[in-house]
Design brief:
Layout: E1 8-12, H1 18-28, H2 37-45, E2 49-55, E3 58-68, E4 75-83, H3 92-106, E5 110-116, H4 120-128, E6 132-137, E7 148-153
InterPro entries: AcTrfase_RimI/Ard1, Acyl_CoA_acyltransferase, GNAT_dom, YpeA/RimI_acetyltransf
GO molecular function: N-acetyltransferase activity
Keywords: Acyltransferase, Cytoplasm, Transferase
């Protein structure tokens, strides 16, 4: 079992770290049109909620969420979660997901996401956080053609 990283801080993503996000995308998603620096900048410019996992000053993971609508019709969508391969399996992804879900819960938003059908570790993490599979998107990821599950987590009242 991998050692947990306890000194990781999840903070608002710094614009100065977007280049590192794009580098991690290349490592994590080389076969599925990884996001560019411009794509990450556009997400921030649109006001979406992005957080980073920092080990000291080093960005080791990132995650983003869009929240749309007004109560009682609020929905959130997880746009991305990525963790440096050297730090996977140590709770970083869970910490990032929890930060996104905290924002969704503050808005009482039902939350959706897509995940590759062959990514068992991610699916298990999402299920453990209240998500359920509600659909299938054939050939969702391009250019690889990998299928995706759509998952949903009902709105939860923030504690």
């Amino acid at each position: 079992m991998s050692e947990r990283i306890t000194e990781v801080e999840v903070l608002k993503l710094r614009r100065s770290d977007l280049r590192r996000c794009a580098q991690l995308e290349q490592l994590l998603f080389p076969d599925d049109d990884p996001w560019s620096l411009a794509a990450f900048a556009s997400e921030l410019d649109q006001g979406h909620h992005y957080v980073g996992a920092y080990l000291g000053e080093q960005l080791i993971g990132y995650a983003g969420l869009a929240v749309n609508g007004r109560p009682p019709q609020v929905e959130a969508e997880v746009h991305t979660i990525g963790v440096d391969p050297e730090h996977q399996g140590r709770g970083v992804g869970k910490a990032l997901l929890r930060a996104l879900l905290q924002r969704a819960d503050e808005r009482r938003a039902t939350t959706f996401l897509e995940v590759r059908t062959d990514n068992g570790a991610a699916i298990a993490m999402y299920r453990a956080h209240g998500f359920e599979i509600v659909g299938l998107r054939p050939r969702y990821y391009q250019p690889s053609g990998a299928d995706a599950h759509t998952m949903r987590r009902e709105a939860v009242e923030a504690s």
